[in-house]
Write a structure and sequence with these properties.
The chain is α/β, with parallel strands linked by helices. The chain has two domains: 226 residues, Spore Coat Polysaccharide Biosynthesis Protein SpsA, Chain A (Alpha-Beta Complex), CATH 3.90.550.10; 76 residues. The protein has 13 helices and ten strands. Helix 2 links the parallel strand 2 and strand 3. The longest helix is centred in the last third of the chain and has 17 residues. It is globular, with a radius of gyration of 20 Å. About 2% of the residues have low confidence.
Length: 320
């Protein structure tokens, strides 16, 4: 049985897919299997994937006849097929240093109380040019040097200090986690289209500890066709963020809930009444009420007040 199951979920990333698959197959740590899932791509992805069909490291190649509509459904499909106890979701438009698995697995073997490990990541563009590094952005936003060095952190501490505010686990490609963590929350995760990863990390760190490796061993590609950069309807994305806030507020272990609510209102839940239009804004407020009337009636006056007073989101957040 392999030590790690590497899942490569792909949709129309033919331009980057060969680089991604090669970055997995060139890992110096070799005790792994690869599961490639294509979500009914319409580009040349299938042609590229078929070039690897005889590679002994690849245990499954599956092509969906119809697009699933959610990357997290593909995560669940891959994890259900996985033979290993450890999972790496290697997103198809990203890349990795050849020592990614070797260094993360070494950390996990040395820190048995950690059930997840994530590393620092570069942000790269279509041309593989580095545009930023996650640690720099996170250190500035939280006014800290936390992400400048490697550390073991209790999950609840990580959740309260940073993860409840923003998704500080860079992206799935930077993370190794135990398979059992995902299966405990699978049904809720796949109900998301946009923020299932953040919802998963919140649940994971409620019960599990994490190790952060300061080496930038992963590269997260931000490009025109990135899932996060697609023209997502505000109604859908903000409703999912409202659901995440509702879930966080329901957890007794979460601190500073008033501060957290204000943060979500300023950063995530407000609607651009001019940009999106009054009708779209009204629909969004109605959606919040359908999700949780009590919480919606608490935050809607805040949203209106912040809009009228032109209150802006601060450029950084302090946890002091």
């Amino acid at each position: 049985m392999p030590a790690v199951s590497v899942i490569i979920p792909n949709y129309n990333h033919g331009a980057f897919l060969k680089e991604r698959i090669d970055s997995v197959l060139n890992q110096t740590f070799t005790d792994y299997e690869v599961i490639i899932l294509d979500d009914a791509s319409t580009d040349n992805s299938k042609e590229i994937i078929e070039e690897y069909s005889l590679n002994p490291k690849i245990s499954h190649i599956i092509y969906n006849e119809n697009n699933s509509g959610s990357p997290f459904k593909q995560w669940a499909k891959g994890i259900a097929l996985a033979k290993a106890d450890w999972i790496w979701i290697a997103e198809s438009d990203d890349s990795a240093n050849s020592s990614f698995l070797q260094k993360t697995m070494k950390v996990l073997q040395a820190n048995i109380d950690a059930d997840c490990c994530y590393c620092d990541s570069y942000l790269i563009n279509d041309n593989n040019e580095v545009t930023d590094k996650f640690s720099i952005a996170k250190n500035y936003f939280f006014q800290t040097d936390k992400w400048s060095s490697s550390s073991f952190t209790k999950g609840i501490s990580e959740l309260n200090s940073s993860l409840k505010y923003v998704c500080t686990i860079n992206n799935a490609s930077a993370l190794i986690f135990k398979k059992s963590i995902f299966t405990n929350f699978e049904e809720d995760i796949i109900s998301y289209r946009y923020y299932g990863d953040w919802f998963f990390y919140i649940n994971a760190l409620r019960l599990h500890n994490i190790f952060y490796l300061a080496d930038p061993l992963s590269s997260c590609r931000i490009h025109t066709n990135s899932f996060v950069n697609k023209p997502n309807p505000g109604l859908n994305t903000k409703t999912e963020l409202f659901r995440i806030l509702r879930f966080l507020l329901s957890l007794p272990e979460i601190h500073d809930k008033k501060k957290l609510t204000n943060f979500f209102c300023l950063r995530y839940l407000g609607s651009g009444w001019i940009k999106e239009g009054l009708k779209a804004s009204s629909l969004l407020m109605s959606n919040y009420i359908k999700e949780d009337r009590k919480l919606a009636l608490k935050i809607i006056p805040k949203l209106i007040w912040y809009k009228l007073s032109r209150r802006k989101m601060p450029s950084y957040i302090s946890n002091s």
